[in-house]
Amino acid sequence: MLVERIEGKWIDVFARVFEMCAVDDTQSAAILSETQSRGTNVNLAELALDRLGVRPIHIVLPTLRQSAPVPVRSTGASDAIAGSPAVISALSAVDFVVDCTVEGLLHAPELPQILADGSRVLMVSNEHPEALERLMPTQDLEPKVKSGIKKLIKASEMHVTSAAGTDVVVDLTEAPCGGGWGYTTQPGSISHWPGGLCLAFPKANTVNGVIVMDRGDMNLTFKRYVESPITLTIENDYVVDVAGEGTDAALFRSYSDAWGDRDAYATSHIGWGMNPGARWDTLPLYDRSQTNGTEQRAFAGNFLYSTGANEHAGRHTLGHFDLPMRNHSVTLDGESVVVNGVLQGDLA
Ligand SMILES: [Fe+2]
Predict the structure, then answer these.
(1) How many Å lie between the centroid of ligand 1 and the Cα of residue 304?
(2) How far is the CA of 56 from the centre of ligand 1 (A)?
């Protein structure tokens, strides 16, 4: 059994990650949380900052009333701030923000305002601290992720294939690309812990082909492994057909349809996992309330395809699937970056 409580070792872990974010006693910090946040992580953040000589302010928001037709999970687009100018200006006024909101600020609409004055944000993913401890960032991941992002920015085409039948092409021209390695020292930036991703947000009408989710691939909104294959046909960014006989395909269609919004079927982001410490097989080792599945988004060599919002293609919806897949191959303008689920060259 995994108990959630303050452990000295976890204060150490939080303090170490904040040090990797260049936090010291000359700086100011805020901890942003909401009433549904994982309280242990909020407390660990406070104690770790205290250990570094920083006395943070706490901003705690009541979790908003639900407005969606289905539970929202794992979007990375927290609505907790709800546009509050008071919260935005408080977060803009500090050097360092620890983001303990349930969904995280990564795609929150207020994020650009918070970063504009140089605040840096560490999004602590809503994971049990035991997982955060195991997935402490390492300094050797940073140059590899940076190299992957550079390759994405330079490339004009991504081609993804698999023995199971995936064959999808993405025109990457002018697509914003990014990623993270688990910490940030750069003023005006955000990173998430655990980290280890390289992603593109393709522009409109740039994604076409077929994606086959095989047994063992994952839908992280449901936090479950696919046990019956799903074939997604994608035309001009939109999944136009979800084929498959099993429960997995039915769940995909049912949840996506619940939004009553075609954009829930659109391409959100596309890329691959970079974190060699993150594992494919740990999902069953946590109860669902103990994990947010960040580890499964980041495990090295996974192909990560996501549906839902993509502001860079003018699409906004809270319907979001992150779908990490094994055994895929990814090329950028013909250069292999992942072969059968294994990172290549300087990314490995
Ligand atoms: Fe996502």
Answers:
(1) 9
(2) 29
